[in-house]
Design goal:
2 domains; mainly alpha
Amino acid sequence: MEFLLVGEELAVERAYQVGFVNRIVPAGEQLDAAREMATAIAANAPLVIGLLKDMALATIPRGPVEEMYLTQRAIDRVLQSEDAKEGPLAFREKRKPKFRGR
């Protein structure tokens, strides 16, 4: 709120403290850090990642009751997906899951 109301420059350390940035990396290492994060995200179940992104983008404009309803519908779709079965199956079989986004 302070940043919005005051409009002053924000030091990178302060931006990190208040959660505007996830991590600080040395100059010149930004692309490597971004690729590392992208690889970690891509290794996760695509339906879950999509759901989390949709939830994050939709939370602010809607009221909490509407958002809760829409969130539950989205969670139900993910829980009924093939990927939802693949995760536990791969765990039981001690192998890496093969998520297909279905």
